[in-house]
Design brief:
heterotrimer, A alpha/beta (650), B mainly alpha (161), C alpha/beta (291), A: 650 residues, alpha/beta, Rossmann fold, five-stranded parallel sheet, 18 helices, 34 strands, 28% helix, C: 291 residues, Glutathione S-transferase Yfyf (Class Pi), Chain A, domain 2, binds flavin-adenine dinucleotide, binds iron/sulfur cluster
Amino acid sequence: MKRIGVFICHCGVNISNTVDVKKVVEEISKIPSVVACADYQYMCSDPGQDMIKKAIKENQLDSVVVAACSPRMHEPTFRATVSDAGMNPYCFEMSNIREQCSWVHLDGEKATKKAIDLVKSSVARASLLEPLVSQGVPVVPKALVIGGGIAGIQTSLDIANSGYKVYLVEKEPSIGGHMARFDKTFPTLDCAACILTPKMVDVARHPNIELLTYSEVESIDGSVGNFHVRVKKNPRYVDMEKCTGCGSCAEACRLAGRIASEFDMGLGKRGAIYVPFPQAVPLRYTIDPEKCLFLKHGKCGTSPKCADVCTTDAIKFDDKPEFVEFDVGAIVVATGFKEFSAELKPEYCYDKYPNVMTGLELERIFAPSGPTGGKPKINGKEPKRIVFISCVGSRDKKVGNAYCSRVCCMYIAKQAHLLKEKIPDADITVMYTDMRAFGKGYEEFYERVQKEGIKYRRGNAAEVYGQDGKLFVRAEDTLLGEPYELEADLVVLGTGLTPNPLAEGIGKLLHLSLSSDGFFLEAHPKLRPVDTVIDGVFLAGVAQGPKDIPDTVAQASGAASHVVNLLSKDEIFAEPTIAVVDEDACVGCKTCMLLCPFEAHEFDEEKGVMKVNAALCKGCGSCAAACPSGSIRMNHFTNDQIIAQLLEVL
Amino acid sequence: MGKSVKEILIDGNGYACIQCGRCTGSCPSGRECSLRTRKLIHMARMGMDVIKTEELWDCTTCFTCQERCPKEVKTTDMIIELRNLAVEEGYFPTMSDVPKIIIKSLYDTGAGQPLSPEVSKIRAIIGLKKEAYDVSTNAETLKKFQRLLDGLEITKKGGLR
Amino acid sequence: MEEYAFFPGCIAKNVYPGIEKATRIVFEKLGIGLRDYEYSCCPPPGVLACYDKPSWLVMGARNLSQSEKDGLNPMTVCSGCYGTLHNVWYALKNDPDLMGFVNDHLGRIDAEYKGKVHPIHFVDILKNYKEKIAELKEIDLGLNVAVHYGCHYLKPSSVTGENSERPTLLDELVGLAGCKAVPFKDGLTCCGAGGGVMSGEPDVSLKIINTKLNNMKDANVDAIVNICSFCHMQFDQSQKKLKTTEIPVLHLNQLFGLAFGIRPKHLALHTHLVSTRDLEKKLKDLKKGGE
Ligand SMILES: Cc1cc2nc3c(=O)[nH]c(=O)nc-3n(C[C@H](O)[C@H](O)[C@H](O)COP(=O)(O)OP(=O)(O)OC[C@H]3O[C@@H](n4cnc5c(N)ncnc54)[C@H](O)[C@@H]3O)c2cc1C
Ligand code: SF4
Ligand code: SF4
């Protein structure tokens, strides 16, 4: 018979207020295999842990049960405790008598009875637990960062500065993401380019960073410590080595100034050969194969003008996609967001009137390199009456976005300020639902813009309509309780941040879960905000949920420190609580292979049986439950263990 | 039988309201009178006497507010429910006799808008039957219809019972 | 032959019989069958649903049950009726308890509604007959019209499935009669009659329709085209009361009747309170020009 020790925690009064802990000790002590049983105020405290260690040694315990809070909270703590005392950590069992008992019941007597049953069932399981040993896997000391916005840039620099190699993959021709589109940033009104461009240049120059722009991740195999990555570099039709970024080609292009620029939200124009913006990194030109006359029709006038003018002979019409493969130990997903599609709120007539604009479009109007050279002109005229509408596509279940986008209140304040600065006699009204100025210096900024004369009227806009060439916005001033309407020369929609559809594929490749808002789900909303449930995969920036630049940068550095932490180990130990196939019983039906969400099953053609890749298996148990021949055993959750546990509570 | 204000709020998603005022701003009636849709929701949530307000009866049930609400608050549905409660509690709108006339006509003829002799003549002139074929054509059917109404609350509320 | 149960509703029967007549003619020409049933008032969403919702449900369900044995879906020419019947159908479809409650009452008069037939708005039938309508057209009416979509055909979109902010169907349909739908301010707002406001709060109701009529007038339209007898009544009667505008009011079926060459009198246009004489004259000239 196994020798088991049981320790019951009061959790201050969290448990003992409802559950009669002494009574539990009394009953559990009666179980023959329980050779030590005690209770304590805080089992997780140092004295509590010492108590367990001492008991293990004194009573030569085989297994330990702690009845306290959720294993999510303290299982790692107590596993370490028993390990310290020389016991295999998998011989530890936790019984949750807080969340599953004292917190959810009022009747003390019944709760005590339930607690006794719960602990008994844990004891039953503990007597069948077996020691398990984790297998070590060597770690490839390199990282992959997907997405080159401010999040990806910051993460890459932090990891690279710690001495590890980083592959930074960006889909667009340049890194920079959304921030590169802004002129100024709230609340300090820093010039975005002044703070971003140096970082972009650092990325390009860093000896530890390999920048793969205009590229896409094609596949990712393997697991934490050992991911194998394949990246497709899209053809730029310009030789990256030869191009000096002089721009003669773009000037010469027959289509120069005739194609809507994506970077300028379609407000500005570019040619078929272009850089998205003057400070692009890398400053190398790209030919748009969808537009280029030569690539589409095999003919561009008498000869392609770009090639004619290029002095370094960099134009390469026969360019082909290239594939690069490499191994990394960790991955950071920093794929950012997409601005809410304003046409999904037809009542604001974004698609009907050119002077109804989104926030991102207005950012380009402010930018010195933007379509108006930084002059606040809409259709060639300075707007005098301007209305901002907040929460467009945020806090809006009708369009499926229940969440607050967290940046719009503040970017509206910033934009209102910038407009007022450029057009001092402008009459600017912000129609808002609630004002959210939560960050450092934000409330002060909100006050400042009101002093500058921006009118804040509570109550969001109901609709925008055009009449006789004029534009009107209707709303209720909810503080006055009066409906009103304003004429406007410019209506700016405070469009929110939505999950980036470009990141969907990445999510699938990495088996990442999404939270209900559609952004990538972190491992724990409070305590593990940069981890995902997939070991070795981390999140940074808006990919995880709406946030401003300060929060993005903080999270990016957090993700980098987790990556560095991981890469600094020679070996990592995977949880041994995984599926194991009994080769003698397996009939090779492959049912498990279809079910496994982590693609951990590999078929051994020679033996005709299935194998589980220990590094990939997360121990979810889907395969074991489905295996028709019952040949899959879940380590630490064997049928015997589970049944013994169940029998005690039935 | 009827729902309480709280039940109406729960069923109508009223607790999701963020008082953004898009409903009032959309309301064609509120532009012409003192109806403030958002305020009705606020009053209901604050436990104020929303069912006594006359504005409750200014809504044309056009559903524009419900359509525009970003929080899926069923504003119009709730106004209809609140009116039911108001009637149950004895708070009738300003012209309470008009609905009574309609209900009586409905009971007597099956039509809320009864046929006048003049229109009957017009019907004949344009080649329609003098009286349309409906629930009142067959005396037996009309009696059955009235029996159905006898068992419904509306005849009591309309002062027929 | 495609066939429907014809639910004319009180207004089209008893106040504006021209709408009933126009509907019968247009549908006959299109080869769509209409069968009559022993219907009562829908009952009105404003007065009944707001006073006693359970009674409204039971009476609505009685109407729906009429054609169930023949498997014919009831067709309405009034969005008020449509609103009632459609909302009753929708509520019962999604709530077996409510269906049970309703059938307990219907059981008292040996009736039952199983939810097998559902109401349909006549424009949803016409939209499948665009080619046939174009074929049947004898006169290009050439009118500039204000189309009034009204509320309950479009909203709530969660129930109707319509695009309530940017509908286009009526603009297309009047086009088939050679008319142009002229945009006007607040084109989609309510006529102000519903919800018992026309009878209960007539001042408010008149203010709403007055604003609407003035917006239509500013757009210089020859006529108002509606798809709802109740809106039709509001447009016609309120102009008489307000005396600020005089825009002829046509139900869409009356418009198609005219385009199909039916004489205005047979559509009872002369019984409208707002004179349609100028309009008729215009059409006569057109006909002459065409011949
Ligand atoms: C109008 C507007 C104004 C704003 N103003 C401010 C401000 O003044 N101050 C402030 O603090 N915040 C502001 N913000 C918020 C700010 O934009 C974000 O906090 C910041 O951009 C987040 O950076 P990110 O790197 O997470 O995402 P992004 O900037 O979106 O970068 C993501 C990058 O990943 C790339 N990518 C996506 N998918 C893939 C893929 N599958 N493979 C490879 N690459 C991929 C994208 O191309 C992009 O370069 C504003 C937001 C808006 C909409
Ligand atoms: S629109 Fe909806 S959320 Fe906004 S105030 Fe009205 S009911 Fe509340
Ligand atoms: S449904 Fe009523 S409250 Fe809502 S917008 Fe229409 S009239 Fe106003």
